[in-house]
Design a protein that fits this description.
459 residues, single chain, Beta-Lactamase, four-stranded antiparallel β-sheet, alpha+beta, transducer, Helix Hairpins, Methyl-accepting chemotaxis protein, 2 domains, transmembrane signaling receptor activity
């Protein structure tokens, strides 16, 4: 009797150990998943770092080229500044010469006016001389032969007076044209003088601008030298960060491998504890699990009766019952499926699952699992319509029509026994688990292994 009690107690303790192993293995799985996610992000960061290293190298090269360009630009601007300054000085001298032409042209115009006055006086003298010649000719005619020689002189004076008048008139006309041309030239020179004065002002502005440009180029050169120094220092910092990330990535990978190794070892321990728990449950002694084993066997018998009765009546066909051509439900997340057994299971077996789950407060849920881990239906509390965009909520509240598979379920599906008592981790999505005790009872229809009837509970 004491040996039976000891075996029973050992089995119960093994169950507790298996439950703890399940919880710890679940924790390690979550931790490993986080490490792997962090490792992936770290890998992405390392890829970004490689890009940054390349960009940094290009930046250093560009900064050095920029510095050389700044130096060359400084020399070119300095040389250009001297050349442009000399050119501006020559232009300024030319402007001053053009400006000085105004006074010379106005003096020339005064000379033309003076010559014009002289020409007018010469014309007047020629006219008076001609009149004098006419008077002398008249007087010679009166004197007869005695004044014939004077008449010849008078004619010559008149002829010279006419020639002098014509010359004076021609000179006057030429001087008039020269005066008009000179005045037009003075007008154009005055306009150019105004432009020259404006150019002079712009030359002063250009000199100031060139001085400013030379200063900016000098400042640009100084800044480019600073950029070269900063990029050189940043290149060293980036290299150190790159090495640090690489080292951290290697250590993260090692940590993930060690955590995964620890998880595997813990799962082996969990399997050993579950074997002891299952053997203890088959020892014939009453334990805390006996009630749930009995409830599971009764539930499996009722399921079998319903399914076999439907097969006998023709309400259900074996092809639909054993259908494994799962059809994905569009838009479901996590993925849900339908097969030939789904509608029958919802209508005939879900009420049974709800009723059996309500038999004990410790029961989390009763469900059916086919040979591939497919749940054609579930209790109503786990069979809600999915919410779009809420996969975590769907994972917990819309577990029907999904496919689940874990190590303990696989062992129960492959094992040969009247029932199996294991602890296992119920997958809640994205690395979340819940440690349960479950009784799995094999379901066999028409001599073929269909799957399991499961009662999950917490004690």
């Amino acid at each position: 009797m004491e040996n039976h009690d000891l075996l029973t107690d050992l089995g119960e303790r093994s169950g507790d150990i298996a439950l703890q192993c399940s919880e710890t293995a679940g924790f390690l799985a979550r931790l490993n998943r986080r490490i792997q996610n962090d490792s992936q992000r770290l890998s992405d960061l390392q890829s970004n770092m490689e890009t940054l290293v390349t960009s940094q190298s290009e930046s250093v090269t560009a900064a050095r080229e920029l510095s050389l360009t700044a130096r060359r630009a400084g020399r070119i601007v300095a040389d250009g500044h001297d050349t442009i300054g000399l050119s501006l000085e020559q232009i300024a001298g030319l402007v001053e010469q053009v400006t000085g032409l105004e006074g010379d042209l106005r003096e020339f115009l005064s000379v033309i006016e003076t010559v014009g006055d002289i020409s007018g006086q010469l014309g007047a003298i020629a006219r008076q001389t001609r009149l004098l010649g006419i008077n002398a000719a008249i007087e010679a005619a009166r004197g007869g032969e005695a004044t014939q020689g004077f008449a010849v002189v008078a004619d010559e004076i008149r002829r010279l007076a006419e020639q002098a008048g014509e010359s004076a008139s021609s000179v006057g006309d030429q001087l008039g044209r020269l005066d008009r041309d000179a005045r037009r030239l003075i007008g154009g020179v005055e306009a150019n003088i105004d432009r020259g004065r404006a150019v002079g002002d712009r030359i002063d502005t250009l000199r100031a601008a060139l001085t400013d440009i030379a200063g900016l180029v000098t400042q640009f050169g100084e800044r480019s030298e600073s950029i070269v120094a900063c990029t050189g220092q940043a290149e060293g910092d980036v290299a150190a960060l790159r090495n640090g990330l690489s080292l951290f990535g290697n250590r993260a990978a090692e940590s993930a491998a060690r955590v995964d190794a620890a998880r595997i070892q813990l799962e082996k321990l969990e399997g050993m504890a579950n074997d002891m728990l299952d053997r203890s449950a088959h020892g014939g002694q009453r334990t805390r699990n006996s009630r749930y084993i009995a409830l599971a066997e009764d539930g499996a018998d009722e399921v079998s009766a319903i399914v076999e009765g439907a097969l006998a009546r023709g309400d259900l066909h074996a092809g639909a019952l054993f259908d494994t051509a799962y059809r994905p439900i569009a838009g479901s997340d996590p993925a849900q499926y339908e097969n030939g057994f789904t509608a029958f299971a919802d209508a005939w077996l879900r009420p049974l699952l709800d009723r059996r789950t309500a038999e004990d407060a410790a029961i989390v849920g009763c469900c059916l699992i086919d040979i591939n881990g497919y749940l054609p239906t579930h209790i109503s509390a786990r069979s809600h319509p999915q919410r779009p965009g809420e996969p975590l909520w769907n994972m917990e509240h819309a577990r029907n029509r999904q496919i689940f598979m874990d190590a303990q379920t696989r062992r129960a599906l492959d094992g040969e026994s009247d029932f199996f008592l294991y602890t296992y981790r119920q997958d809640l999505g994205e690395g979340r688990y819940r440690a349960l005790r479950s009784v799995f009872v094999p379901l066999v229809f028409e001599g073929r292994r269909w799957g399991l009837y499961e009662v999950g509970y917490l004690i």
